Structure formats: C-alpha cells, structure tokens
Amino acid sequence: MRNLLFIISFDGKRYHGWQSQKNAPSVQETVKSAFKSITGEKAKIIGCSRTDARVHANMFAFSVKTSSRIPTEKFVLALNAKLPDDIAASKCIEVDEDFNARFSCRVKEYKYLIYNGNIRNPFYSDRAYFYPYFLDEKRLDETAKYFLGTHDFSAFCSSGASVVSKVRTIYDAEVTRNGEMVIFTISGDGFLYNMVRIIVGTLLYTETGKIKKEEIPEIIHSLDRKRAGITVPPAGLYLNKVFFDFDI
C-alpha cells in the first residue's frame, strides 16, 4: 500500500467547501470520484484543511493510500483527465506511511483579496470582495501586526466550531496593494472557523473608525465574537500555500 500526497488548486465558486456534504457538491467528493474512476478504489481522501463554501485554493494538499502502481508523474495526468475544469492537480509524490495531509501540515498561508476600485469589476465578482471605499494599505499592514503571536482567537471564530482549543499562532500578517487590489496575507499553524475572514473584517473596521487599532489586543483577550468586525464574504479568500516538514 502506497501513501501519496497530491497538490491541487481549485476554483471554489460552485463547491460547498472541501469536505464532503450530503446534499451539496464538494471538492473532496469530486476528487474521490475521480480517484475511484482511475483506480477502482473507494479510497479515503484526507485534506490538509477544511475550506468553506466558495473559498478558493491556489495550493491544497491531500493524502491518499492506494494499491495502484501508477507512477506519480502519470497519476497527475490521469487525475486531471477525470477532474472538472475548476480543479487541477499539479504534483504527486510518495510519502511515509504515517503521513497525514491534515495533521502533518505545519503552516497554512491564506490570502484575502479586496478589489478597491470605485466601480465593481465583473471579472472579480467571484474572485475578490468589492469594497469601493479607499483603503490605506500601509496603515492596514501596521495594524495587522497586532494579530501576531499565540492567542486564544475565540473572538475571531464563528459559532458552530467544533474544536476544543481555540488557541492558534499567527506567524505573519501583512497587507499590500497591487493597483486596485488590496491583498491580505496571513500565515499560521491553523485557523478557526471563519477566522481569516473575521480578521479582515476587523481590519476594515479600523479603517472606518468603528474599531480603534489599539483596541485589537483587548478584543483578542475578551474572547467575545461580538466585539470583533464583520465576517467578510468567502469569495475573496484563498488557501495560498501549505507547508510540511519537507519541501514539495
């Protein structure tokens, strides 16, 4: 039995997130179906993260154990031949038997895109959040540093989360601009339900004056979701990179 690690990317527009759902399409179920059509196996597909509905991934990893002897480089081509156009595999490598894409993932990096033009761009309708009010990316970048470190991020977690501990470590948080696109980049050892989207919403509130940037540490320590900002829409969110103990 081989243990394989696949790297894929996907457009999340028409999916109800990564995880299999009973009554809605998911990326996991789509990949599982494609894998079965190649190998004939009802394999367990283990994803590195749970992405929400309409969230995208520039880099997503999943592991799967298989008896198939298809070479790794040909497995990528075979899988892509069975996947729809909005999901694509880019790499496949053989990993140790005890490797698990979820628990072996050390760092995840997310990006959130805001189209900060005066007039909405229809080509970004499912790719970025349209926000027509001017954003000062340098000020936002400075404010984002308040989130660095290890904290209980209960104030930045939507209800319905099933995790026991809400302590997470944020390694880096930055905000940059490329023309009319403002890009929020956040990396950490893990993220709570809607955590990145609430952090971005809170940063937007500091721009409008609804929250003072100096209040962010107090909001974190309060553990009170009501004190943080809005949950921005999912379409601007991308799982951008994932990191393991080895280079991929």
Give short descriptive properties of this protein:
Alpha-Beta Plaits, 5 helices, 10-stranded mixed β-sheet, 10 strands, single chain, alpha+beta, 248 residues
User: Any idea what the shape is?
Assistant: globular
What is the CATH architecture term of the largest domain?
2-Layer Sandwich
Mean of pLDDT = 97
Work out the number of β strands: 10
Beta-strand percent range: 25-35%
Specify the biggest β-sheet: 10 strands, mixed
Report the helical percentage. 10-25%
* Series of H and E elements: EHEEHEEEHEEEHHE
User: What is the CATH third-level topology name of the largest domain?
Assistant: Alpha-Beta Plaits
| Helix-strand category | alpha+beta
CATH class of the largest domain: Alpha Beta
Whole-number tally of structural domains: 2
